[in-house]
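User: Could you walk me through two proteins back to back? I'd like the raw sequence and the structure tokens for each, with a short line separating them so I can tell where one ends and the next begins.

Assistant: Of course. Protein one, sequence then structure:
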Amino acid sequence: MTFIRTATIASMAVSAGLMAAATSLAAPAAADPGADAFVAALTSAGLAGVDPATAVSVGQSVCPMLAEPGQQVANVAADVSDAIGRPLGPATMFTGIAISIFCPAAVTSLANGQSPLGPIPLGLLGI
């Protein structure tokens, strides 16, 4: 009887340990779908080779940069170029992809012919 109790307790302890390990390992796997879509879009566009975490961080910074007073897309693309270490052409493509993924309200506004001159209001960026 003592053997059965010991075996049951040991089995429960192993099960609890496995569940705790599975839970801790599952947490990092829950990624941001926008970030995943962004990295996939960059790869599809031929902009591979940028560290995914850096790419997502820089991509997510595009909308707030565009919202700064006096900021233009060309200025943001130049900042992106510096941040990712790529020439202005690929950085401009990167910036456009970031806007389409992370600033959907701005894309909708532009598609409706409401192209703001100068900074894009925060509300249009979905911020």
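----
Protein two, same layout:
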Amino acid sequence: MKLEISASLNYRLSEPVDLMLQIEAANGGGQHVEQTSLDLGHPDYVARVPAADGICEPIWLHGAGALHVDYRARVAIDRPAVDLRALSEVPLHRLPAAAVPYLNESRYCPSNKFHAFVERRFGELAGGAKIAAMRDWIESRFTYVAGTSDAETGALDSFVERRGVCRDYAHVMIALARSSHIPARMASVYALGVTPMDFHAVAEVYLDGDWRMVDATGMSCPTETARICVGRDAADIAFLTAYREIELVEQQVRVEKA
């Protein structure tokens, strides 16, 4: 499977602004970037920043007046289809060091608050079977509604309201997995089939010695998805972080089969 990806961002900057940009598809982990181009316009300063787990290199910018970004890529996906239910969890003492931090609570994923619910609802299951049941439970009980969450909405809020967008579904999935002592992280991705088409967020859980994508919205498939970056939760994977107020003029994301 090959994906043709494009993303264009157009923002108005009323004053000089520092920004971090994470929109480039990563190499490795079941995908290979065959062709790529990135036009950042004319920022005053550009640098690369090391990212979580070495999966991508965010771009650090300083600009004024306007931000115009155009990104295009062709990405070959070689991520096999996997039945989560057939995967086993890794004993905690055998986890790789890089996976251990993803057992812990984070800003948007207060996993310790979900222990009682997880034990009551999924306590008889283990490993991938438990993760699959959690995914199915979220997808069947939550309603995807744009505009019902904001930058302050965390997994507990979404769990109570049973609605949100992709980041909210992913936060709940991550919190439930961590509550079961299964490492879980958040990934920003480009994926076929997402409606409305935009930067998408999914959970990734560590099972059977590798990270496995889990999309509780049910909109994307790992074999048709290109990872951008990963982190503890939405605070780490935002496609654009601005350190002053900026104004959206236009933004477009497209993902198609090559």
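The chain has a mean pLDDT of 96.

Let me know if you want the two compared in more detail.
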